Amino acid sequence: MTGDHQTLALLLFSAFVAVTLGITTWVSRNRHGSAEEFYAGGRLFSPMENGFAIAGDYMSAASFLGISGLIALHGYDGLLYSVGFLVAWLVVLYLVAELVRNCGRFTLADVVAARMSERPVRTAAGTSSVTVSVLYLVAQMVGAGALVSLLLGGTSESARTWTIIGVGALMVIYVSFGGMRATTWIQIVKAILLMGGALALTVLVLVRFQGDFDQMLRTAAQRSGHGNAFLAPGLRYGGDWTARFDFISLGLALVLGTAGLPHILSRFYTVPTARAARRSVVWSIGLIGGFYLMTIVLGFGAAAIVGPEAVRASNAAGNTAVPLLALDLGGGADSTGGTVLFALVAAIAFATILAVVAGITLASSASVAHDLYASLRRPRGKQWREVTVARVAAVGVGVVAIAIGLLARDLNVAFLVGLAFAVAASANLPVLLYSLFWRRFTTRGAVWAVYGGLLPAVVLVLFSPVVSGSPGSLFPGTDFQYFPLENPGLVSIPLGFLAGWLGTVTSAERADRAKHAETEVRSLTGAGAV
Amino acid sequence: MTSSNGRLRLRRGGGPERTVESREGRAPAPAGTGVAGEARFDDPWYDALNSGWGELDGTGAPASVGPSADRGVGDRAGGAADIYLEVQRSAAFQEVRSRYRRFVVPGVAVFFTWYVGYVVMATTAPGLMARSVAGAVNVAMLAGLGQFLTTFLFTWAYARHARVRRDRAALELRWDTQELTRVVGGGHR
C-alpha cells in the first residue's frame, strides 16, 4: 500500500466525516430535545428515506468486505451468509415490522411492557438489548481497527488503537448531538455511497468478462485450485458433523436474529404509520438483496481476477479482497485509476463502519435510558431528563465499546457478528413473538423468555471452542470447552422459546385479556399508535 | 373522508348490545379500483385527520352523549379496556386478523422451510448440490439465486396482500376505535 493510496483514502474519509458532522450540526439546530425527536427523529421520514437508512444500518463492513472475502477464499460457502442475511428480512416483514410500529414507542421493551407488569419486563428486555448492541458494536470496532491497519498504516498497534478510539469518539458526537435525525441521514448517505461503490465495481468486473457470468465462475474455479468444488458448498463448512451443525446453527441465528436487533427495530419508529414501516422494509429488501447479489459477483470476481492466493497473502481472513479487486480493476497498483478506486473502497468501508456504529449506539442508549433507567428511577420524572440520560448513555456505551474493542481486537469479526445475531434471536425474538401472538403469555413468561435465551447463549459461548481449548481460541492455553459448536443458536434459540412457554404455563397469574385485546387490536389496526 | 356509508360502526349508546355491523358482503377493494384507493390511502392517517371529527354526527346518535350517559366518571379506564375487547370481538376486526393470519402463517411456513431445507442440503448433501446444470452453474448456485428470487417474490406478495386486502379495513377500524377511546378516555389516546 503506497503513500498515494493512504493520502487519498484519508482525504475521502475526512470528507465523509466533515459531511456527516455538518449534517449533525444542521439537523440539531433549533431542536428541543424531546424524546420523540431524539429516539425517533420526529417520526416523519418517508418510506424511501427510511428504507435506505435501514439498508445503511444493516449492511456493515462485515457484509461488504467480509462476505466478498469469504466468497473469494472459500467460494460458494461465503454465499450462504448472503442468503441468510437476506431471507431474515422476510421474518421482519411478515411478523414484526408493522406490528411493532403500531404497538411501541421507541424500543422493543415498549411492545412487551404494554401487556405485562412493566418493571421486570423492561429491565429484562433492556438488558438483553444492551447486550446485543454491545456485542455488535464491539464487532464493528474490532473491524474498524483491523481495516485501518490493513489499508492505511501497515499493522502498527498505535494506528489500530487510535482508530478504535477515533471511531468511538465520532459516533458519540453524532449520536449525542444529532439523535435519530442525524443518525438517519448518515445512514442514508452511507447507503448511497455503498450501493454506488458496489455497483461501480460490479459493472467493472462484468465488463472485464464481457458480461459472461459463466466465464467468470469458471475462471474463479480454475484459479482457486479447487476446481468445481469451489462453486459448491462444503469447502469451509464441510468435513465433520460438528462443522455442519455449526453452520446450521449459524444459519438459524442469521435468519432469526435480524428481527431481534434493537437498532433495526428502532428504525420502524421513524416513520409515521405501519404502512410506511412496511414500505420502508420493502425498499430495504430491494436494496439489501441487490447489494448481496453484487457481493456475489465481487467475491467470485476477486477470486477470478486477483486470485485467492494473493487475497490470502494480504489478509488471511479475506477482508481485503474487495480493495485488492478495486486496485486491479482500476488498472493496477501504479496507475491513477487503481489508486482512486482503492482509496474510494477504503473510504466507503470506513464510512460503513462509522454509520453502523452510530446506529447501534443510538439504539443501545435508548435501551439504557428508556428501558433500564426508566424502570429503575422514581416515577414521575420529567421527560427531558430521559433524553439527557440517553445522551450520557451514548457516551457511556461508547466508552465501554471502545474499551472492549481494544481488549478484543484479535477476535474474529464474523464470529462476533454471528454471536450478536444468536443472542438477538434467543433473547429478543421469542419474547417479541409471544407478546404479539400468544393470548396466554404472562409477565413471568416474558421475563423467562428473555433470560432463558440470553443466559444459555452467553454461557454456551463461554464453554465453546471460541473461548478455550483450541489453537484459535481466546485462551488457547486453558481448556474448559464443554460445548462443541462455535455458534450457540441451534441450542439457545429453542431454549428461549421453551423458557417463555414454561414461564407462562407455570405462572400463577392469568394473562390479562383486556391488555391482550388492546395489543392485538392496536398491532393490527394502528389504533392509538403514536 | 367521505365514504362513511357502509363503514363499520361501533355505536355506543345506540342499542343495548352496541353491536358491530359486520362488513360482510362488502368485497375488499379489488386491484382494478386501486387507483382511487391508492390516492386516498397514500397517507391515510393524515388524510383522516384532515377530514375532521364530525362524522359521527351523521349517524343520528351523537357520540358524545352516549358514553357519558352510560358510564360514571370513575369508570374511564375500564371503559377503554372494554372498547378494545369489544373491537377484538367484532366481526370486522376478526376478518382483518384472519386475513393477516391466513396469509402470514403459510407464508412463513413456506419460506422458513425452504430456507432451512436449503441450509441443511448445503451442509449435508454437497454432492447433490455440486451437480452441474449448465456450464459452471450447478444446483447449489441455482438454489442460492432461487433464495434471492423467492425472497423478492414473497416481499412483493406480502406488500400486495396487505395493500389490497388489509389496509382499508384496518384504517377504518383504527378510526372507529380511536373515536371510541377518545370519547371514553377523555381524549388521552
Automatic annotation (TrEMBL), chain A:
Keywords: Cell membrane, Membrane, Symport, Transmembrane, Transmembrane helix, Transport. GO terms for cellular component: plasma membrane. InterPro entries: Na/Glc_symporter_sf, Na/solute_symporter, Sodium:Solute_Symporter. Gene3D superfamilies: Sodium/glucose cotransporter (1.20.1730.10). The keyword Nucleotide-binding does not apply. It comes from the Bacteria. It is a multi-pass membrane protein. CDD domains: SLC5sbd_u4 (cd11480). This is Cation acetate symporter. It comes from Streptomyces phyllanthi.
TrEMBL record, chain B:
This is DUF485 domain-containing protein. Coiled coil: none annotated. The lineage of its organism: Bacteria, Bacillati, Actinomycetota, Actinomycetes, Kitasatosporales. Residues 1-39 are annotated as: Disordered. The keyword Transmembrane helix applies. The chain crosses the membrane at residues 103-121, 133-159. It comes from Streptomyces phyllanthi. Keywords: Membrane, Transmembrane, Transmembrane helix. Residues 14-26 have a biased composition (Basic and acidic residues). The keyword Phosphoprotein does not apply.
